From TrEMBL:
UniProt biased composition (Basic and acidic residues): 333-366
Signal sequence annotation: none
Short name of any one Pfam family annotated for the protein: MIP
Subcellular location: Membrane
Official protein name in the record: Related to aquaporin
Molecular function as annotated in GO: water channel activity
Biological source species: Pseudozyma antarctica (Yeast)
Membrane topology: Multi-pass membrane protein
Length: 411
C-alpha cells in the first residue's frame, strides 16, 4: 500500500473511490478502457453499434434534423397553401386557372407566409431554434452558433422539408399543379434587379434573426413574432416582382414537385446565401464596435438617462459652471472616466458597509433574532449598548455597562 493508503488505514478511514481506482489502474493494463464495476473488463451490456463513447452526439443531431424537417414542412405547407389559395377564385378553382395578382392577393400571400412562420417558429423555437431556411443556417454557422456537422444536418433537413411541404400542397388541393407557388422573375425584372431584391430581402430577414434570436436580451422570447412580421413585410414588396423566395428550400421544393426548373432558378439559391453573408458582415461589424454602448441601457430595470433635463443643465451651468453636455455618472454611456470612477467607488463603499453590518449581525447568537434577519437581508445597524460573548459552557453571557454575572440562557 502507498503512504496515503497506509495513513488512511491506520486512522481507520475508508479509502475513497478515486484513490482505489487510481491505485488499481497502475497495475492493471488498459484499466481505463474497462468498466468500473467489472474487474476483468467485460461489459455485461455492451452495445457494439451505438455505444455512447463513439456516437454521443447522434441523438441531439437526429432530433435537430427531424425537428427542422417537420417544422420546414409545416411552415411551407401552410405558407404555400395559403399563397395558392390566394391566387384561385371560386370560378378559377373549377377551371384550374390562376387569376392575376391584386392588392388583396398580395396581402393574402404575405399574411400566409408571415403568420405561418410566426406560428411554426414559435412552436419549434425551443426544439431546434425554428430556422426553416438554409440561408439562416449558413449565417448561424458563419457566426459560430452552429457547428459544421449540425449546420449540414439542418441544411439537408430543410431542403427535404421544402420538397415535402410542396408535395402536400400538390396532393391536398384540387389543382394538380404547384405553378402558383413557384418563384420566378416577373416580366420587366432583369437578372440584376431580381438578384438584388432577393439578396436584400433575405439580408433583412437574417439580420432580424441575428438581432432578435442570437443576441440574448429581454425581448428574445418575442423573436418569432419579429421574424414573422419581417417575412410579412418582405412579401408585401417582393411577392409581385420575384415571388419573394428568400429561402432556397421554399424555391427548390415547388420546382422539384413541379418537375421544372426555370432558367433563373439559380438566383433563388445564390442571392439568399449572399444576403445571409451580408447580414453576418454587418452584424460582426456592429459587435466589433460594441453597438450596445450607444443606447442608454435598453434592458435596464430602472430608467437611466444620459443627460440631465435641460433646465437642470442650464441651472448648473449658471450656478456652478458645470458642463451642460455632461452625462449622468450612473449611465453606462458616460464618457467622463473620473466621474464614473467616483460613482463606482461610492457604490462599492456602500456595498462594503452593508456587508460589514450583515456579517456582524450573523456573528451574534440565533436567539438574538439577528442572524435570521441578516440572512434574509433584513437588517439594521447593530445596537452598541451591549455585547454578547460566548462562554466555555456553551451558554452566553450578556455584558453591558452594568456588572452582571452568570450565564444567560435562551428562552
Amino acid at each position: 500500500m502507498s503512504s496515503v493508503e497506509e495513513s488512511g488505514a491506520q486512522q481507520g478511514h475508508r479509502l475513497s473511490t478515486d484513490t482505489a481506482y487510481s491505485r488499481r489502474s497502475r497495475f492493471i493494463p488498459f484499466y481505463h478502457h474497462r468498466h468500473h464495476n467489472d474487474y476483468y473488463g467485460e461489459r455485461r451490456h455492451r452495445r457494439r453499434h451505438f455505444g455512447k463513447p463513439k456516437f454521443s452526439g447522434f441523438q441531439p443531431h437526429f432530433m435537430a434534423g427531424l425537428g427542422e424537417f417537420i417544422g420546414t414542412t409545416m411552415f411551407l405547407f401552410l405558407a404555400e397553401g395559403g399563397a395558392k389559395t390566394a391566387q384561385l377564385s371560386v370560378s378559377a378553382t373549377q377551371t384550374q386557372t390562376a387569376t392575376p395578382l391584386s392588392n388583396e392577393t398580395i396581402m393574402f400571400i404575405a399574411t400566409s407566409f408571415g403568420l405561418s412562420l410566426l406560428v411554426t417558429a414559435w412552436m419549434f423555437y425551443r426544439i431546434t431554434g425554428g430556422l426553416f431556411n438554409p440561408a439562416i443556417t449558413v449565417a448561424l454557422w458563419l457566426t459560430g452558433v452552429l457547428t459544421s456537422r449540425r449546420a449540414l444536418i439542418l441544411f439537408v433537413s430543410q431542403i427535404l422539408g421544402g420538397i415535402a411541404g410542396a408535395g402536400l400542397v400538390l396532393g391536398l388541393t384540387p389543382s394538380n399543379s404547384v405553378q402558383q407557388v413557384t418563384t420566378t422573375l416577373q416580366p420587366g425584372i432583369n437578372i440584376a434587379q431580381g438578384f438584388l431584391i432577393e439578396m436584400l430581402l433575405t439580408s433583412i430577414l437574417v439580420f432580424t434573426v441575428l438581432m432578435m434570436a442570437v443576441e440574448k436580451h429581454r425581448a428574445t422570447f418575442m423573436a418569432p413574432v419579429a421574424i414573422g412580421l419581417t417575412l410579412f413585410a418582405c412579401h408585401l414588396f417582393g411577392a409581385v416582382w420575384t415571388g419573394c423566395g428568400m429561402n432556397p428550400a421554399r424555391s427548390f421544393g415547388p420546382a422539384v414537385v413541379a418537375g421544372s426548373f426555370n432558367s433563373d432558378h439559380w438566383i433563388y439559391w445564390i442571392a439568399p446565401l449572399c444576403g445571409g453573408i451580408l447580414s453576418v458582415i454587418y452584424f460582426s461589424f456592429l459587435k466589433l464596435l460594441n453597438y450596445n454602448s450607444v443606447v442608454l441601457d435598453q434592458d435596464s430595470d430602472t430608467e437611466i438617462t444620459g443627460l440631465k433635463p435641460i433646465h437642470v443643465r442650464l441651472w448648473n451651468f449658471i450656478r456652478h459652471g458645470e458642463n451642460p453636455s455632461a452625462l449622468n455618472p450612473e449611465s453606462s454611456t458616460h464618457y467622463d472616466k473620473e466621474a464614473r470612477k467616483q460613482f463606482d467607488n461610492e457604490q462599492r463603499q456602500e456595498f462594503e458597509e452593508r456587508e460589514a453590518v450583515r456579517r456582524e449581525m450573523q456573528d451574534k447568537p440565533v436567539f438574538d433574532s439577528n442572524a435570521g434577519e441578516a440572512a434574509l437581508g433584513n437588517f439594521s445597524p447593530p445596537q452598541r449598548t451591549a455585547d454578547v460573548m460566548s462562554t466555555s459552557t456553551g451558554s452566553t453571557a450578556h455584558h453591558s455597562g452594568q456588572n452582571q454575572s452568570g450565564p444567560i440562557l435562551p428562552k
